[in-house]
Write a structure and sequence with these properties.
This protein is α/β, with parallel strands linked by helices. The chain has helices spanning 2-12, 15-24, 36-42, 74-82, 90-96; strands spanning 33-35, 47-56, 65-72, 86-89, 103-105. Helix content is 41%, strand content 26%. Strand 3, helix 4 and strand 4 form a beta-alpha-beta unit.
């Protein structure tokens, strides 16, 4: 995945994918674990958020948001989809938004 992110960054001149590749290349123990509540606090309705780690299901989400992450707990998936949002893998997001425009990194 890291190699694919770097290729996408070069191809589309999208620095966001290079940044995410760099964050994912850290050891697993350093990857962030982000609660739904933090996503709720740092995003707005309609935002696209990338978490270069795992999304945990603690907290409430009160608006629609597209969340791409390395991993999700089942509770996090249910909370995001229950609020009308979407859950994607990081590579699915790269395919949908190759330029990385409007993507927020939370981590």
């Amino acid at each position: 995945m890291i190699t694919e992110l770097k290729k996408a960054a070069k191809k589309e001149d999208a620095g966001v994918w290079e940044t995410i590749a760099s964050l994912l290349s850290q050891s697993r123990s350093r990857r962030p674990e982000i609660n739904i509540q933090k996503i709720n606090n740092y995003s707005s309705d309609g935002d696209t958020v990338v978490v270069p780690g795992k999304v945990l299901g603690v907290g409430k989400l009160d608006h629609k948001v597209v969340v791409a992450a390395f991993g999700f707990t089942e509770g996090a998936r249910k909370e995001i989809e229950g609020a009308g949002g979407r859950v994607l893998s990081i590579m699915e997001l790269v395919k949908e938004n190759s330029k990385g425009s409007g993507v927020k990194i939370i981590g």
